[in-house]
Amino acid sequence: MSLFPFFPMATILIILYLSYIFLAFAQNEDQFIYNGFLQAKLQLDGTAEIQSNGLLQLTNTKNVSSPQIGHVFFPFPLKFNTTSSSGLIPSLSFSTNFVFAIVPLVPTVGAHGMAFIISATRNFSHAVGNQYLGLFNSSNDGLPANHILAIELDTALNPEFGDIDKNHVGIDVNSLNSTESVPAMYFSNKDEKNISMELVSGNPMHLWIDYDEAEKLLNVTLAPTKIPKPNRPLMSKPIDLSRYLLESMYVGFSAATGTLAPSNHYVLGWSFNKSGQAQSLDVSRLPQLPRQRKKREKPGLIIMVLLLAGALVLITIIGAAYNSRRKKYEEIREDWEREYGPHRFSYKNLYKATKGFSDKELLGAGGFGKVYRGILPSSNIQIAVKKVSHDSKQGIKEFVAEIISMGRLRHRNLVQLLGYCRRKGELLLVYDYMPNGSLDKFLYNNERSNLNWIQRFRILRGVAAGLLYLHEDWEQVVIHRDERQPLALMCLHLGLSCLEVACGRRPIELQRLHEEVILIDWVFECWRKGAILDASDPRLEGNYVKKEMELVLKLGLLCSHSMPEARPSMRQVMQFLDGDAQLPELPNDSELFW
């Protein structure tokens, strides 16, 4: 007698099949293994793609005209910060291992790197490439709301993130300032010692990541693929991940590469388990990396000489023709510029980028020159071009000083100098274009300001951090190059910035009957009356931390002291803003302030 007398046989088979599918998914929803990624159903974005042999490639060196970002995620979120059904396995414990390779375009020279990530979201549309590894940008790096754990494989030295070298493994929590990082190496069980590894060697490498919720311990282990897992991990970090991970999280990879020294980032295989030890990868089944181009057999010596001679003649002819056509764009080149050759832009390209330095592209003008917006025709990258007159030798010296110093600066709060150009009586500096424009358009517009106090306080800390980098951290102390801007004068500028940001007012404003109101005097008068918070921007409607607002206003007055020796150093300013030092009392004499 049939167990299902009222159902047709086809319906019974469908029900049994679906039950089997759901049961199989329930048994494997917390773990997976990919010995190669052929036909793998993963979430890809950016430059990430799966090759025909099953190799997962995050970035490539085929197109190096702009920085690249690649992401890949397991398509379904996993349960992390929640109690397991059995109650025996800690809910946050996990285990994963994967085989990766970083193959640089230029041997042993790689820019930036890749990371294994556990993230609350798969949307990284606002992330930046290069040193940010496709994870953050300058405004959200370090925010607790990120809810990101990353194990970075970094192949570039970025002082702004406290990197130890250009070949390290780091543990990142919501920020690229690693909570712990060590040079890339592995422990040899045979030799019982650590052996260094080069991440950009182009060879496949194996990485294991294991977290024990009971011990609250995160272990990271690195090794070549030819040896088993070492007995000792590369890093063993005590950390409570329940403070950072949410209930539902995604797991995957992110990679970024620049334009100067690009790299190919690959993942050959990946195993993950949320409820136990991850399965071991079968290295013999993993896809092969693309073969590096090998030189063909050398032709005969005579043929080689003839080819070289012909090439030289052809290059000479082409070069002569090219130079003759560029006479009207002739540029000045001197011996000191040889070191900066790769960063030099052609005048012709800058002329086209700014539409002939059109007034419609003018961003602003000051005592040091005019600044134009431009779009490079070859890469469609937006730039800002500062055009300086070339009327005196002093102007050349200032230009050379800025080229040598600013071209080497690397800090997220400083506009990056991309390159330069010289043509007859003109000097040109090329910078990153800041699409949001100047801060004053957010502070001084007639409408309600869209900058809240948290954003304003972060901006002031960023300005102070950038000045501190120029004053102390940068090895050549750039500020000292211009005697008209000593450390004390830059502190005065910072003081004015503090008052403008906190009050939402210009340094000097015209009121009725053409009366001038000086911001420093007005804030000092509020302080003298014991009501310094009255100077705060009314558009904030009192939505600020009173201690922080009072600190910024008093710090602005202190930095505006008329005696340079009475102004705090930039190191002290950062200590005041971070709450690591107490702000001294202000003098009662208003004439002591500018």
From TrEMBL:
Residues that span the membrane, as ranges: 6-26, 301-322
UniProt topology in membrane: Single-pass type I membrane protein
Family stated for the protein in its record: In the C-terminal section; belongs to the protein kinase superfamily. Ser/Thr protein kinase family.
Native organism: Fagus sylvatica (Beechnut)
GO biological process: defense response; response to other organism
Keyword list, A-Z: ATP-binding, Cell membrane, Glycoprotein, Lectin, Membrane, Nucleotide-binding, Receptor, Signal, Transferase, Transmembrane, Transmembrane helix
Domain of life: Eukaryota
Binding residues annotated for ATP, in chain numbering: K387
Organism classification: Eukaryota, Viridiplantae, Streptophyta, Embryophyta, Tracheophyta
Protein name: Protein kinase domain-containing protein
